[in-house]
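Subject: design request, 452 residues
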């Protein structure tokens, strides 16, 4: 009897301590640090209606109480809605002071081996200072909740704007697609760590600029870690009281063309926002692309193992369909050779579904460049859906590495001859430390084009 109780208590301790590193690693503003509370709901609470109303997953159910982590704002609303709760922060504190508590900090928090916003930022900073000669860390903009949208530029002479092809790798338009943060992040780390040992990597880094934005949707990711694992959108507070805009519906190319796969309804999981680039996260990508020419891009998502290319908004081929088809098939072959996983290749609209306002339609539509959505493993929901195992992070990265390198090499080989629509002045100049200044001539050019 006593030992059963002990067991339960140590489980309780274990679960509570698990979340602490995360709480401590919250946004640099420190706001959330102070606002996260542990509460328990009384046994008589209708948990079903509570969870329908507030998108929070229970941390645990212990005894006859359910425990939740909530923000201070939520707390007010929970109170308003008439739910009876007890703040359990004393319990949290007392457990914190347990001698065993500290050991458990190393377990990785709620997101295990995956990176939270803060964990990623500190890794990117470490890389940027260790490999000063071949990379530079930029802040492209700020999320709605004031988190930084970081980009790591990897190239020789990283402080200069050189006449070199640029390739972009973007992760995490969608909050719950955690693996899509890891692949571009690990690509960045691989390029930096192997530059001095590997001739191929050195050559490729020296002859291009590789721009890596592993985490486009930091607010959504944090929400997915702490409150609701399957959250997809950003955390925009919409006019009807619902939350979130689908960042992969907020780009301007044929935005809102129809309602297929892109919704005008704020509460929808695919809400496209009030207008194109209404979301600061998406605007950060627009600024990145307005300031310099890119030759190719990959946007990582999950799940379903597919390499998709435009168009997405209509089921029609682009004029460069043969090239897109060829590059996608070559990448799928390279991927297959690593772990034997099959990625299907095709036009996004026909292989997957129609949507408008996604990143790749915009990147191709305005800049004429090959742009791919790579849907990472697993294949389907039965194999985990959005919930990839931590054990798979490395193998998914390993298989995607040669495909990414291949696209960079394509961009290098075809740099002189490729049909690039725009050429910003590429005279050598020192790039601005943080937010590069937008070229006004280009900006008005894009504005004109996009408003068409
Ligand atoms: O719907 C999306 O934004 C992407 N799939 S996901 O399951 N990760 O949400 C795919 C977008 C590809 N574009 C089109 N199908 N048009
Ligand atoms: Ca360079
Ligand atoms: Zn996605």
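Subject: RE: design request

Done. Sequence follows.
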């Amino acid at each position: 009897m006593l030992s059963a109780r002990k067991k339960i208590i140590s489980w309780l301790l274990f679960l509570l301590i698990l979340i602490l590193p995360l709480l401590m690693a919250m946004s640099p503003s420190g706001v959330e640090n102070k606002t996260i509370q542990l509460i328990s709901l009384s046994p008589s609470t209708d948990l079903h209606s509570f969870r329908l109303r507030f998108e929070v997953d229970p941390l645990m159910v212990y005894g006859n109480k359910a425990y939740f982590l909530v923000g201070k704002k939520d707390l007010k609303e929970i109170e308003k809605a008439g739910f009876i709760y007890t703040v359990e922060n004393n319990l949290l504190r007392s457990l914190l002071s347990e001698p065993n508590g500290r050991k458990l900090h190393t377990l990785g928090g709620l997101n295990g081996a995956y990176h939270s916003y803060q964990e990623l930022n500190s890794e990117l900073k470490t890389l940027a200072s260790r490999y000063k000669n071949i990379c530079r860390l930029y802040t492209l903009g700020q999320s709605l909740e004031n988190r930084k949208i970081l980009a790591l530029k990897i190239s020789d002479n990283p402080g200069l704007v050189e006449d070199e092809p640029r390739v972009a790798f973007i992760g995490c338009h969608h909050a719950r697609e955690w693996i899509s943060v890891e692949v571009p992040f690990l690509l960045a780390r691989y390029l930096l760590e192997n530059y001095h040992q590997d001739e191929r990597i050195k050559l490729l880094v020296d002859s291009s600029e590789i721009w890596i934005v592993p985490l486009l949707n930091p607010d959504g990711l944090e929400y997915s870690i702490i409150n609701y694992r399957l959250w997809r959108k950003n955390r925009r507070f919409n006019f009807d009281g619902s939350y979130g805009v689908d960042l992969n519906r907020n780009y301007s190319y044929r935005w809102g063309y129809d309602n297929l796969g892109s919704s005008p309804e704020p509460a929808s999981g695919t809400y496209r926002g009030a207008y194109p680039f209404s979301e600061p996260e998406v605007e950060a990508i627009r600024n990145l692309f307005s300031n310099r020419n890119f030759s190719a891009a990959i946007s990582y998502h999950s799940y379903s193992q597919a390499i998709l290319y435009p168009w997405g908004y209509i089921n029609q081929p682009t004029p460069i369909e043969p090239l897109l088809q060829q590059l996608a098939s070559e990448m799928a072959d390279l991927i297959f050779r690593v772990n034997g996983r099959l990625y299907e290749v095709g036009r996004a609209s026909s292989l997957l579904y129609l949507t408008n306002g996604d990143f790749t339609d915009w990147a191709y539509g305005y800049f004429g460049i090959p742009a791919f959505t790579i849907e990472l493993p697993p294949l389907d929901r039965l194999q985990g859906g959005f919930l990839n195992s931590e054990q798979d992070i490395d193998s998914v990265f390993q298989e995607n590495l040669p495909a990414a390198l291949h696209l960079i090499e394509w961009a290098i080989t075809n740099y002189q001859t490729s049909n690039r629509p725009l050429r910003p002045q590429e005279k050598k100049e020192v790039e601005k430390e943080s937010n590069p200044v937008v070229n006004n001539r280009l900006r008005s050019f894009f504005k004109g084009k996009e408003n068409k």
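Residues 2-24 form the longest helix (23 residues).
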